[in-house]
Amino acid sequence: FIEALNDDEQAELVALCWVGRGTFEPEDFDEATETARNERVNSVASYLLGVPLLADFLEEGLEKMGYSVEDAESDVM
Q1: Nearest-10 Cα torsion for 76, 60, 16, 4
Q2: What is the pTM assigned to this prediction?
Q3: Within a 13 Å sphere around the CA of 6, how many CA atoms are in the beta-carbon half?
């Protein structure tokens, strides 16, 4: 799934992870996205799948960005 995302989407997913773990604040999301683009050296999928607690970081990142995980799930299901 991650590899099927375009480069911008992959960078935003990494940025969301970083916001969730507290590396960046929500208001710095654009900076986090740019950093993810500039620092990419390996497969984004490999990087993210190697992050302990990835699901927790993504959930926390969504919440910090003002999105409800439950609402997102209901939109997909």
Answers
A1: -30
A2: 0.89
A3: 1
Mark out the alpha helices in the chain (DSSP H runs).
Answer: 7-21, 29-38, 44-49, 54-64, 69-76
- What span, in angstroms and rounded, lies between the C-alpha atoms of 40 and 2? 14
CA dihedral 10, 45, 2, 64 (to 10 degrees): -60
Q: Residue 10: how many CB atoms within 10 A of its CB?
A: 22
Distance CA 36, CA 33 (A): 5
How would residue 71 be classed by pLDDT, with cut points 50, 70 and 90?
confident
User: How far does Cα 66 stand from its chain's mean position?
Assistant: 14
